[in-house]
């Protein structure tokens, strides 16, 4: 393939390019019939190009049900990673963008619960996590990942009672995964697995109690709601 130039990025930001490339990748991997894949691609193009901040659910239904005749639209072949770029092509990328996408979705749901109005998902604090769980279990190519994620979900997902708790659940499980994978072959030496957010990103998230490190979860929640919120999603490198 082509060798891409390293893109400078700010690790305190989330990159729209990573979210969009994650979506493209996800839809490419969807093992559907060609006509279904085509439909999803067209839907994606339409969603990405929509200038609205809020997409009415009925508009999507109308599009999928009535207006999506097969057209000559193709997804761009160009996938690029920024915040998710790895020091080698097989590192980071898609799995990183999936985490980023799902954190962004849990935070968006907590910040704007009204966005779920008329979807049948309103008032369900688990809507995003259950969707993620099903996706990871069914379509994410890494079976070991799916098994591990399913184990964590079985163990504690039912304790999640609010949209804020859903944000924190995903954060703490992701740290559990980071901990397990620290030093593994899949680790990018340039991006060592850490307990996140590191003190340089969020000093107030870290506290010490009886000489031991503890998280201040209230501060972590505020940090996540800032980090994965729209104003922190950078449009740099989108074309
Ligand atoms: P990632 O872990 O992908 O994180 C992406 C970005 O999210 C980081 O750069 C950081 O900005 C942010 N972040 C990091 N930690 C947190 C947190 N706690 N909360 C919020 N944001 C955070 N690989 C395996 O080898 N074995 C597995 O069992 C496995 N299970 C996985 C399960 C799931 C559901 C997913 C999505 C991926 C899994 N992977 C697994 C892949 C692995 O977790 C990483 O995605 C991959 O190694 C790339 O790591 P990364 O350095 O890009 O950071």
Automatic annotation (TrEMBL):
Residues 87-196 form the ERV/ALR sulfhydryl oxidase domain. It comes from the Eukaryota. Belongs to the quiescin-sulfhydryl oxidase (QSOX) family. Catalyzes the oxidation of sulfhydryl groups in peptide and protein thiols to disulfides with the reduction of oxygen to hydrogen peroxide. This is Sulfhydryl oxidase. The chain holds residues 274 to 512 of 630 of the full protein.
């Amino acid at each position: 393939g082509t060798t891409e130039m390293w893109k400078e990025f700010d690790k305190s930001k989330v990159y729209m390019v990573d979210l969009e490339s994650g979506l493209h990748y996800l839809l490419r991997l969807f093992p559907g019939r060609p006509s279904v894949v085509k439909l999803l691609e067209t839907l994606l193009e339409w969603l990405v190009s929509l200038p609205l901040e809020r997409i009415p659910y009925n508009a999507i239904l109308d599009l999928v049900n009535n207006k999506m005749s097969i057209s000559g639209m193709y997804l761009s072949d160009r996938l690029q990673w920024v915040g998710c770029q790895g020091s080698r092509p097989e590192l980071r990328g898609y799995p990183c963008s999936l985490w980023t996408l799902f954190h962004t979705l849990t935070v968006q749901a907590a910040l704007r619960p009204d966005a779920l109005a008329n979807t049948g998902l309103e008032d369900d604090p688990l809507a995003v996590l259950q969707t993620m769980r099903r996706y990871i279990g069914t379509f994410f190519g890494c079976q070991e990942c799916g098994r591990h994620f399913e184990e964590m979900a079985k163990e504690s997902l039912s304790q999640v009672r609010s949209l804020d708790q859903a944000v924190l659940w995903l954060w703490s499980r992701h740290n559990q995964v980071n901990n397990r994978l620290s030093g593994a072959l899949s680790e990018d030496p340039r991006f060592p697995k850490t307990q996140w957010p590191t003190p340089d990103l969020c000093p107030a998230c870290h506290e010490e109690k009886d000489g031991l490190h503890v998280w201040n979860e209230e501060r972590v929640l505020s940090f996540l709601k800032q980090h994965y919120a729209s104003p922190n999603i950078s449009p740099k490198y989108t074309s």
